[in-house]
Write a structure and sequence with these properties.
Elements (H helix, E strand, L loop, with lengths): L4 H10 L3 H12 L2 H18 L9 H19 L19 H16 L3 H12 L4 H8 L3 H19 L3
């Protein structure tokens, strides 16, 4: 149990974003155990630096950015590739196991066509509904870079999916 006001305040801000952080990690790592490790590492890094957070209203954005960085760090440390196992993460509903597998493989294929920056921007924009300015802050990129990355990623996804 937290014994001071700062720890209580941190927990108040962190607890509502834990599931989101886990999902972000899972999108990158495609492994439950690694995603749990990233959740713990994110909590540790955020708590360690909590005193330096000047604007608590941006805690969520800051925690998401930290989770993305932790996920990318873990990807760099490991060399194996893991396939996606949880279709509900992307909201895919299928009428049969075969259809679900096909949908999952299709989604994985088109998402793998993106580089890490493009994947991050697409996920933060469309899966988590962040505004472009929030994405810019979360990824520490200029707003123009976020806009052009989003445009480029959408074009890639359209070409990969066969929609154009």
């Amino acid at each position: 149990m937290p014994d001071n006001a700062e720890e209580r305040r941190f927990l108040e801000l962190f607890e509502p974003v834990q599931e989101e952080i886990y999902r972000i990690a899972y999108i990158y790592l495609k492994n439950s155990d690694d995603s749990k490790d990233v959740l713990q590492e994110t909590a540790y890094r955020c708590f360690k630096s909590f005193k330096r957070l000047r604007q608590p209203e941006f805690f969520r954005t800051w925690a998401v950015r930290t989770a993305i960085n932790c996920s990318l760090d873990m990807l760099k440390r490991r060399s194996r590739t893991v396939s996606l196992n949880e279709s509900e993460l992307y909201g895919i509903s299928a009428s049969s196991p075969e259809s679900e597998t096909e949908d999952r493989m299709f989604l994985e294929k088109i998402m793998n066509s993106l580089n890490e920056r493009e994947k991050s921007v697409i996920l933060l924009r469309h899966l988590y509904g962040l505004e472009l300015k929030e994405i810019s802050k979360a990824l520490r990129l200029p707003l123009g870079t976020v806009k052009s990355t989003l445009y480029r990623a959408k074009n890639k996804l359209e070409k990969e999916s066969g929609l154009i």
